[in-house]
Amino acid sequence: MTTKTRKILICLTAAMLVIIVCLNTIFAPLRIMELGKHGRYKNGVRIPILMYHHFGDEVASGVIISPDKFESHMKALAEAGYTTVTFREVCDHVNHGTVLPEKPVLITIDDGYTSVYESAYPILTKYNMKATVFIVGTFHGKTTYKDTAHPLIPPHFGDPEAREMSESGLISIQSHSYDMHHYEPYEDDYREGVLRKPRERRAAYIEAFTSDFESAAEQIEEITGTRPKVYAYPFGKHTRLSESLLKGMGVYVTLTTASGLNVVGLDAPQSLYKLKRLNVPGAMTPEELLEMIA
Q1: What is the pLDDT of residue 62?
Q2: Topology of domain 3-293, CATH
Q3: pTM
C-alpha cells in the first residue's frame, strides 16, 4: 500500500467515524436503557481480568513480579478450578451464547516486555494457560525509546517472539496503541495516553487516533494474520469519543486500568467495553490473589 493510498484510506475512515460518533451520541440513551435497572445484564457472567506487566527478579513492585511468584499464581488458579479464557471466547459467549467454563479468568499482560517471552510464556505453556499480551507499536522489538538514544528499560520482544507465542494458540497479541504510550520527559509533543492534546481540534484528533490505530493494526496483522479486536488503553485513560472511534474501527473489547470485577451479559455487546482489571502486585501471595478475585 502506497503512502498516498494509506492517507486517503485514513481520511475516508476518519470521515466515516465522525458520522458514527454523531450517531452514537444520538442513540446512546437507548443503549443505556437496554441494560435495565442498576446496569444488570441478562444472564450475566462474572469474569475477573488480571493485569501483569514485567517479570523479573528486581524488587517486587506494582508492575514487577518474579517468575517464581507468577508461577505460584498460575498454579493456585489451576488448583482452585479457574480456567483461563480468551477475549474471543468471551465475545462468542456474549454474542452467540457459547458456554464459558464455570470459573473463567482472563490474564492480560501489558507493554510487551521481553520478559513476557522469556519468563511468563514458558510458565503459561507449562500450565496450558491462555493470556492476552498488549504491545506498543513503537516499542515493539526495541531496546531504546522509539528512535532516540534513551534506553528502554526493560527491553521489548519483537516479531519472531510475538509470532511464536501467537502460533502457540495460548497467547493473543492485541493493541496497546502504536504511539500513544508516551513518556513525557522523552517527548517533544507529549500526549497523555489517547486523550486530546490541549487546543487540539476534534477533526485533527480523530485523524491522529485513527491513523495510530491503523498503524498498530497493520503491525499486528503482519505478525498474527488477524487485525486486533481488543484494545487496552495506555494508562487506562479513555473518553467517550475514543470509545466510539474504536467501535467504528471494529474493536469489540476495550480495557481500562480501573480496579474491579466485570459482569458480561448475553446479547449485551456493550458489556465488553471499558472493562475493569485487577492489577497484581509483585508481592501478592497466591492466597491473596484467590481472595481478590473471589
Answers
A1: 77
A2: TIM Barrel (3.20.20)
A3: 0.87
